[in-house]
Amino acid sequence: MIQKLLTSMLPALGLYLTLMPCLRAQSHPSLLGIWQDETHPDKLVQFFPHNGGIQGKAVSNDPAQNGKLVLKDLVWNSNTRSYQGVLISPDDDRQFLVSLTVKDVDHFYFKVKVLLFSKFFHFKRVNG
After folding, report:
1. Is 14 exposed, middle or buried (0-12, 13-18, 19+ CB in 10 A)?
2. Where does residue 64 rank: exposed (0-12), middle (13-18), buried (19+ CB within 10 A)?
3. In this predicted model, what pLDDT tens digit does every residue of 116-128 receive, in sequence order?
4. Backbone dihedral region of 73: left (phi > 0), alpha (psi from -120 to 50 degrees) or beta?
5. What are the tens digits of pLDDT across the range 68-94?
6. Exposed (0-12), middle (13-18) or buried (19+): which is 16, by Cβ within 10 Å?
7. What is the pLDDT of residues 8-38, one digit of tens each?
8. Residue 111 and residue 99 in contact, taking contact as beta carbons nearer than 8 Å
9. Contact by Cβ (8 Å): 86, 98
10. Which residues contact 106 (CB under 8 A, 6 or more apart)?
11. Neighbouring-strand partners of residue 98
12. CATH of the domain at 99
């Protein structure tokens, strides 16, 4: 009885094991929505689709900062399982290459490297 059950399930299991890596490679976690810096709760970023990638703009009570582009050209890299793009410093408009990693549906972090120094920024989802 058990052998018959296992034998009947093998084709489905084989198909699942064959297709699963392909399906996972095609999907990636969504960044769309508003996210909050976990260290500086007053810093919010709203992500939106733009020209096949994703961009992020500041959400702020300060009119000079509100709507300012802070992340651009974010594109999913299936090899590294992260988004690659550009961080734009809101203070002086300097640009840095970043790699943004989604930990789960409500948390991501990105790392900025400048010469020998690097810094991590951790965000949590405010709304989707």
Report:
1. exposed
2. exposed
3. 989 999 999 998 6
4. left
5. 999 999 999 999 999 999 999 988 999
6. exposed
7. 555 544 444 444 443 344 467 899 999 999 9
8. yes
9. yes
10. 124, 125
11. 85, 112
12. 2.40.128.520
- Sequence length of the chain is 128
Distances (CA, A) of 81 to 24, 33, 84: 10, 20, 10
Kindly state whether residue 61 falls inside one of the protein's structural domains. yes
> Which residue range(s) make up the domain with 37?
30-127
Domain count, the chain: 1
What would the 3-class secondary structure string for the chain be? CHHHHHHHHHHHHHHHHHHHHHHHHHCCCCCCEEEEECCCCCCEEEEEEECCEEEEEEECCCCCCCCCEEEEEEEEECCCCEEEEEEECCCCCCEEEEEEEEEECCEEEEEEEECCEEEEEEEEEEEC
Domain-embedded: residue 25:
no
Residue with tokens 């590294």: 80
Residue 109 in domain: yes
